[in-house]
Amino acid sequence: MRKIVLVSGSPRRKELLKNLGLKFTVFIPNVPEQIRDRHYKRDIVKVVRAKLDSASCRAKELLIACDTIVVCGGKVLGKPQDAHQAAGFLKMLSGRKHIVYSCLAVKYRQGGQAVYKHRLVATEVYFRRITPAEITAYLRTPVPYDKAGAYGIQENKGLFVRKISGCYYNVVGLPVNDLIDMLKSIK
What HAMAP family does the entry give (predicted)? Predict the structure, then answer.
């Protein structure tokens, strides 16, 4: 049995792993998350690999890392830097479809070599129209400031979400079904 190390400081990812009944330790990476609009699929994979490489990987360890972004109209919406940017993100998402991408990756040693596996998971999210008053009230909460796209689907019962197509947990920040599939494939 491999010892699991979650390479993330995300409380949501920690909670989801605990809910799966997995025992794990946490390593918090210090990696810049540079993801460009035109190259977001390639960049998110690079960011996650850099997170995995920031932690040492010993024999019998399995490192898990994930990064999540929101893409709307070809523009990447990361974590907002301030209330003004968060308001802009929410106005952009209002009444529209966007896609939440997560790159889920693992790293482990096999035969003395580091092995990497990753999956890019996409979920379509449709927002209802959001009023300016709703945006103002939402910005008074701590919710929008540490999440890609300035919202958390799990907070306030998905207040702005009309429907999703794909994995709910991907929108939360960790596509758990894909993780389970990856873990089953590792010897």
Answer: Maf (MF_00528)
Q: What CATH number is associated with residue 102? A: 3.90.950.10
Which residue segment(s) compose the domain that 127 sits in? 3-185
Helix (H, G, I), strand (E, B) or coil at 36: coil
174: nearest Cα among 14, 44, 3: 14
Any idea how long the chain is? Answer: 187
pLDDT tens digits for the chain (187 residues)?
789 999 999 999 999 999 999 999 999 999 888 898 989 999 999 999 999 999 998 889 999 999 999 999 999 998 899 999 999 999 999 999 999 999 999 999 998 899 999 999 999 999 999 999 999 999 998 888 888 899 888 876 578 999 999 999 999 999 999 999 999 988 7
* Residues 56/21/181/32 CA torsion (nearest 10 deg): -40
Number of domains comprising the chain: 1
Known catalytic residue: 146?
no
For 2, how many CA atoms within 13 A lie in the half-sphere containing its CB?
21
Closest Cα to residue 102, out of 186, 177, 2? 177
